[in-house]
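Obj.: predict assembly geometry.
Materials: sequence records (below).
Method: joint structure prediction, all chains together.
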Amino acid sequence: MPELPEVEVVRAGLEPAVTGARVEAITVFDQRSLRRHDGPSEDFVDQLTGRTIVSAERRGKFLWLPLAGHGLDAGPQALVVHLGMSGQVLLRDRATDDNLTRIRIELEHVDHGPLRLNFVDQRIFGSMAIDSLAPTVDHPEQLVPSAVAHIARDPLDERFDDRLFYERLSRRNSGIKRALLDQTLISGIGNIYADESLWAARIHYEQSAASLSRAKARLLLAEVRLVLAKALGEGGTSFDAQYVNVNGASGYFSHSLNAYGQQGNPCPRCGTLIVRESFMNRGSHFCPKCQRLR
DNA sequence: AAGTAATCCTGATCGC
DNA sequence: TGCGATCAGGATTACT
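Observations (raw structure tokens):
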């Protein structure tokens, strides 16, 4: 499941290829991949065709490509991409097709020549959209798409406010895993890295957020950053070939996971068997000895 | 208002 | 060989 490290790998891979590239043509194979676009697919095609991509940006799990020039509403815009559960952005030559491609974007780059972006998404939880860019509340020089405005900065963002995070945690009555997955509190964390971070900090996923001491909250945030940075350094985590980086090579570090998907295997710290419980329509993996509910 | 549940969505895989 | 059941969970919407 693409989370912050996987999305960042995609962003970094796309950046040199799309910066300065012009959109020549678009084919929408499945309109459901435009669910978040405000308008029909013809509108998406009209607005994007002929535009030049300026850069590749990311916050949390959202990725966007700012566009040169202005839209009909006279404001700055971006192509916003969310990979959802199974989305991939594959950088190809003009002759390469991919199974389950929902949207295809043909680019012309001044240095790299003709390119093709295939937006592949089996489960169609991901999406593309043209969105307007607006200043962020805490740093008005920085623009983000309106669809991204409500989420918090991610923990690898240098402007992430640690103190604010601790304060909001201390006022939360729900379990800590719920809080970690709440993108308006801290963005970029999904099920895999939530379980991995909680294992590293030795916290039970249902421990109430407000009950954590400040020291424990600090430890958790530090472990979140370590887990994300480690995964990022290794190119993301991949399962069942659902996640593929921008060059089409599968991520490869799933074997390094300590808790996620490890039910029935011994905890790498104490040897107790890792347990999987159902929670929020997904799995929670933890060590029942290291991660006790207090 | 804050917290939680429901909803969307499909193809690879498996057992029979 | 075919077919139905199973499985994965991010973000948004709709509730309580």
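Conclusions so far: Chain A has a mean pLDDT of 91.
To do: check interface contacts against the pulldown list.
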